Amino acid sequence: MNWLFAPLSERRLIPGGGLRGATPWVIAIMVFVMIVVAAAGLALSNVAGLVARGVSQRYSIQLADGAGRQGVAVFAARSAPGVVAVRPVSPAEMRATLERWLGPAGASADLPLPAIIDLDLAPGADAAAVGRRIEAAVPGAHFVAHADSLAPLLTALKSLSWLAAALVLLVALANAAAVVLAARGALDTNRATIEVMHGIGATDRQVVRLFQRRIAIDALLGGVAGGVAAALALLVVLGTGSGWIAELAGGAALRAGDVLLLALLPFAVAVLATLVARSAVLTALRTNL
Amino acid sequence: MTGETAIVEFERVGLRYGTGGEVLRDLDFRLTAGSFYFLTGPSGAGKTSLLKLLYLAQRPTRGAIRLFGEELSTLARDAMPPLRRRIGVVFQDFRLVRHLSVFDNVALPLRIGGATDVEVEAPVREMLAWVGLADRASARPATLSGGEQQRVAIARAVIASPELIVADEPTGNVDAAMAQRILHLLTVMNRQGTTVVVATHDLSLIAATPGAQLIRLENGALTDPTGGLRNPAAGSFGPRR
Ligand SMILES: Nc1ncnc2c1ncn2[C@@H]1O[C@H](COP(=O)(O)OP(=O)(O)O)[C@@H](O)[C@H]1O
Ligand SMILES: [Mg+2]
């Protein structure tokens, strides 16, 4: 720990030699943004995963006008290898659905009623073979994978979560840049003292040690402040919406591991800031003799 | 004298700042361990520049410098701090750390050398008593007179028992009595075996230091008509009256 923390008597050399001024606040804001964006990204990715898993083995047979041929289709489906469950959607259910879409007209008995049969395939089952078999047995039937119809939505969710990851990375970079600037500023403010120390035989490591402690503390304070603010914001947002998300996706938006990851972010940022500041100071010192 | 240890050897050393002309030219001399040297010459002759080479604040642009037997031109940057710790420097402008107390300023070389607060206490008190500043230990440099600051600078330069003391016009800003007092501190260190190099143009100081040798710089070159610096005979550069 000696490389990290100089003793008090040495620290007096650099009064307030940390990330003075606005830097802890900048770090706090950056950490706040990082955590919120990371949480959103993780939630999106989780929801996408849950939805994808929920529909991955689910298929439908659609018969546009074939309420009368539903029985044939059900029979064909039941006898197809790999099919573990067959659930014909009852005409009453279909009518209710149509009514929801078309209004009272949907309840009209004149309207030809389409038939839908939901199928669950066993994991690893040959969906294409099942489809061919059913489409051969029931002309005009359409065999549809639920995953296919959801694919655009899932792709969008995945893209959004990657975008969130990229944003977190960008904010981390901006944060590092802010810390480098602040460290250089601290170095400039204390240039005279550093020259004296070098002249007396101090090594770069001894000089950098003087800055490191304050920088680490300031970065940690900023990080924790941003983290607490982000936690409150997420509690409000997810607290009011999590029930809905869970219902929609069939699982929690954030898992314990995700929460742990988010909680570690402020500390990771503080460590990163300290290391970045350290290397910035060392690099700047190396330009002197 | 042959057989005496050279603590410093300059061989055809030249120094230029940036793209300017050479401010030091063809410096060829050796300093023997345990001697007392005055470096004289008019203002702008290059005294400070030569001292900077000595205390490793500058590298020569040509030539070779050996300090404590180490060749400086090929010395890695990381190897410099240990050498610097063997040199005590009294800067022309003192360079005291202004937000540190007198005590902490004097303690600095010991702390950089790794001493703990407890280990630092007694030597620093003793040193402050030696330079007559025992009662100013907690004062800030800015509240001290020029002579007092100069003595803090000297205390800081000698506290870690360096083998070489380099002082740049240490009596430039003080009256004659204080100048004698400061010179006395340096001669005491020299008598204990430390090599001392003092840049000054105060002839009365030189006259008051029998046995000291003279290095004279003019326009960046050594004026050493006797060649005594390359192989100095003891006392040959003593005061001329
Ligand atoms: N850092 C520097 N950059 C450029 N020129 C310098 C620098 N320091 C000194 N000089 C020049 O070098 C010459 C010698 O200066 P200096 O060594 O300070 O002489 P002295 O100490 O004898 O007065 C002067 O002409 C001065 O202007
Ligand atoms: Mg000078």
Summarize the structure.
The complex is a heterodimer of chains A (289) and B (241). Chain A is an alpha+beta fold.
Major pleated sheet of chain B: 6 strands, mixed
Write down the Rg of chain B. Answer: 18 Å
* Structural class designation of chain B: alpha/beta
Q: Within the largest sheet of chain A, what's the order of strands?
A: 2-3-1-4
The helix/strand class of chain A is alpha+beta
- Characterize the largest beta sheet of chain A: strand count, sense, and whether it forms a barrel: 4 strands, antiparallel
How many β strands of chain A by DSSP? Answer: 4
Our count of helices of chain A gives 9
Low-confidence stretches of chain B: 231-241
Rg of chain A (C-alpha, Å)? 31 Å
In terms of quaternary structure, what is this?
heterodimer
Q: How many strand units of chain B?
A: 10
Count of alpha and pi helical runs of chain B: 7
Could you explain how this protein is built, in words?
Chain A is of the alpha+beta class and 289 residues long. In chain A, 70% of the residues lie in helices and 8% in strands. Chain A is built from 9 helices and 4 strands. Chain A has a 4-stranded antiparallel β-sheet. The longest helix of chain A is centred in the C-terminal third of the chain and has 46 residues, at 204-249. Chain A is elongated. The two termini of chain A are 27 Å apart. With 241 residues, chain B is of the alpha/beta class. Chain B has 7 helices and 10 strands. In chain B, the strands form 2 sheets. In chain B, strands 6-7-8-3-9-10 form a 6-stranded mixed β-sheet, sandwiched between helices. In chain B, strands 2-1-4-5 form a 4-stranded antiparallel β-sheet, with helices on one face. Mean pLDDT of chain B is 89; it is low at 231-241. Chain A binds chain B through residues 7, 9-10, 12-13, 15, 192-193, 195-203, 206, 286, 289, and chain B through 55-59, 77-78, 80-85, 87, 89, 91, 95-97, 99-100, 104, 107-109, 111-113, 116-117, 120, 156. The site of adenosine-5'-diphosphate (ADP) has 11 residues of chain B, from α1.
